[in-house]
Specification:
The chain is mostly helical. The chain has 19 helices and two strands.
């Protein structure tokens, strides 16, 4: 017998909130949801918006003064065979490496950047650039705790994971939309001829034109790019608030000081770490983890890598962390970096909402691959060095 329309939805909603309230208490659950969303808005979304404004301005500077064209010519021989992407994609990876996943939005929405892409490449750009998200922060954090070579293993693993995730995403996109193989992101009727070349979007004043000073041209580029960043920052609000709130409520636990639920922000049921701990032997073989508690890092990185990094000092104080774990954490932290919230908001703002579930799958596989590759790379290199020594 087929259930009436709406019943399955009610069952899921009642089951979800029923589970949360049974563990946390109904009042505490509601308070935690509201306070977590409010804190995310103030301390995460506005931070990301500021980052989008700055990266949007920088990407516009790159496009106006020829850096994008230069990257295309220099890196095309490398990125094309490895990722199936144009050379300008490196600009997106650089932005996310210096900041976070949403930084790719301002870059990808820039018409001067997007004109190099076919549709399937533009979609997979989220997976490519996202694999390097928060890279600088993660590496500096690890080095600040005395691990200097281990993050480099993680960086190599993240590069390998990015290749896997990007290529897989392209295959899934083309399987569903074969016409995206030849469809340009910027159509011909959106292009215009400037200095003998087809360019796109609003006409940018050429740096060599004498009727404007260099200062004016730079200022115009910065302000135009910054306006795009504001629009992007507003577009990511729903995805970050809704998805991140529930991911964190299934990741974190109660108040560590009182051992009870108080309704404060970032409390939860710890369901995800609990489920991961049940399969601890799998993680030991795949990643070389010597303690099941280490699983908390990649699980937390699904929601936010910043919170995951906050777990490392406690792990160090307990003596359960080692050099292999640091290398694996670096790779998985970069590849995942809160993709459950960031990927959805990013793809939605770029107009590819229907590919969110496929992006999740590809990014998840990329992160797992990065962790496995990093572990075995570290194991092999360490073994060889010890053998030679």
């Amino acid at each position: 017998m087929k259930l009436p329309r709406g019943i399955p939805c009610l069952i899921v909603i009642v089951g979800l909130f029923g589970y949360l309230s049974s563990v946390m208490g109904f009042t505490n659950m509601l308070n935690t949801i509201m306070r977590t969303a409010h804190d995310l808005l103030l301390n995460t979304v506005f931070y990301l918006m500021a980052m989008c404004v700055l990266t949007g301005a920088l990407s516009r500077i790159f496009s106006v003064f020829g850096v994008v064209d230069l990257l295309q010519r220099m890196l095309k021989p490398v990125l094309r065979p490895l990722y199936g992407l144009p050379g300008v994609s490196s600009a997106g990876a650089l932005m996310t490496f210096l900041s976070d996943k949403p930084a790719i939005i301002s870059v990808a929405k820039n018409p001067q950047f997007a004109r190099y892409f076919k549709r399937y490449q533009h979609i997979s750009l989220v997976n490519f650039a996202g694999s390097f998200a928060m890279g600088l922060l993660v590496i500096i954090f690890m080095m600040g705790h005395g691990y200097y070579t281990e993050p480099l293993y993680g960086l190599v693993g993240a590069i390998c994971g990015s290749i896997i995730g990007t290529r897989l995403m392209q295959r899934l996109v083309l399987k569903e939309q074969p016409d995206y193989l030849t469809e340009d992101v910027i159509e011909d009727n959106e292009k215009q001829m400037v200095d003998g070349k087809w360019v796109t979007g609003k006409y940018e004043t050429h740096p060599d034109e004498p009727h404007q000073t260099l200062f004016v041209r730079v200022l115009d580029a910065l302000l135009d790019g910054g306006k795009t960043g504001v629009e992007v920052g507003l577009a990511i609000i729903p995805g970050v608030l809704i998805i991140s709130t529930f991911v964190m409520m299934f990741t974190f636990g109660c108040d560590p000081e009182t051992g009870t639920y108080t309704g404060e922000a970032y409390q939860g049921t710890e369901l995800l770490p609990l489920l991961a701990g049940k399969a601890g032997f799998v993680f030991r073989w795949l990643f070389g983890f010597n303690a099941s508690e280490l699983v908390a890092f990649p699980i937390t990185a699904l929601g936010t890598v910043g919170a995951a990094l906050g777990l490392i000092p406690e792990m160090m104080s307990k003596g359960i962390i080692d050099s292999n774990a640091i290398a694996v954490f670096t790779a998985m932290g970069m590849c995942w970096s809160g993709f459950l919230s960031a990927d959805a908001a990013t793809l939605d703002s770029l107009g590819y909402r229907n590919f969110i579930s496929r992006s999740f799958t590809c990014t998840f596989i990329a992160g797992l691959s990065a962790g496995i590759i990093t572990h075995w790379l570290y194991f092999i290199v360490t073994y060889l060095l010890s053998y030679i020594g």
